[in-house]
Queue: 2 jobs
Job 1
Amino acid sequence: MDTSGIARILEDSDNFLLLTHKNPDGDAIGSLLGLLNALREIGKNVDGYFHEKLPANYARFADIPALYENLPDFGRYDIVVCLDFSNPERFGPQTDFSRYNVVNIDHHPDNNRFGSSNFVLPEAAATAEIVFNVLNDMDSARISRKTATFLMIGLIMDTGGFRFDNTIPSVFSAASELLSLGADYHAIIDAMFFSKSADFAKMEAEVVLHHLRTGCDGRFAWFYLSDMLLDAYGVDEKNTEGLIEAVRSIENFKIVAIFRRKDNGFRFSLRSKDGALSVGIVARELNGGGHELAAGGFIPSDTIEEAEGIMLERVSKLFADAGAGKEA
Ligand SMILES: [Mn+2]
């Protein structure tokens, strides 16, 4: 992975704003805070901005100052670094990125190269892995214990704790080096995988017991996470990142989807366990995008039933095409 071009840009400037996508996940948070911390440690002037407060399991690691909710004036910075998002819509607030000097660093293959400089490296398992390589390429930077912890969060979460298909040898190399540098691996694992609240566990059980719907001969499962369900268990939507993985871990399901009501329709996340079944294709057809095995989008619709019907049709086609491909 060639990251020397990014390293040079970061070496040569002093004044940065770092951004990532809305509803930030572990990679978004880890790569942003890791780069923020490393650049600050070598005396650069850096702000990091999140569109919303971080989920509780991440907040305990985010003990360095960042900006939340109040959008800063981009014009005050020499360079705006966009991390882990493939198009301006994923950022959240409507922004004309073409007005600024934008360095776009991402590993999503469908990145539309909205930056002034674009470093789209789909071979990276996580944007945090790219940042790790960038910092190694910078003569002036080093990876401190704190930076290592942030980057480890990104690596762990985008590989599902080193379980997903993107867990390639370079991931273990980077994780090994980060661990040697003092990354707080055990605290991360504890916070991300062994700390769900009892209320969340009950809600998860209710989803599996009463809310799963299936199609495609039981190979596709989905559920609608309503506000009513969240309220009944007192769970904040922000803290539901692991819910889809819990359903995905069930043996027969090859593809799973979660729906959430949003504005005039339904936002969805999709996961696939089979490389021949690209949910990225479905998401791109439905106002979204992402990776081939993990993607999301939006279906404008008045009712959940209608949205589910549209999704079922697309996923059925995916199974049919994959079946046809196998016979060919
Ligand atoms: Mn990522």
Note: The mean pLDDT is 96.
Job 2
Amino acid sequence: MRCPHCSSLQDKVIESRQNPSGTSIRRRRECLSCGYRYTSYERIEEKALKVIKRDGRREPFDLEKLERGLQKSLEKRSISQAVIDQIISETEDFAIMKAGNKREVSSRELGEKILSLLYEIDPIAYVRFASVYRMFEDIDQFIAEIEKLSHNR
Ligand SMILES: [Zn+2]
């Protein structure tokens, strides 16, 4: 896979992990040219989940976007990558269960699920995440705002 940092195509897989429901595999990769570490996800395409936004639009359920948003919003807290992995994995399982045969889950439900997971893991991170998240209508809008902030920095 192409390194997002230096565009080299040479990488090695450091770790592979399947989510508990067995519907996706997450791989941590390291670029052999520059050492940058990144994540790829593999899942069954025909089962792609959709997220229903507040305004009724549907978007693909994007775990990578979710992970970036979590990392950025929690970067000042000492939350390990393993914990973020756990949140992502449990959020995905929740989404699959919630979506059922319709393959759709609301953005609001996802946001509230992430909040409840954070609350158990790190109450301070929860407060921080919640205080920002609740200013927005849904998790996608929240992540979009965080990404905008980090681009302007
Ligand atoms: Zn690289």
Note: The chain is about 45% helix and 20% strand.
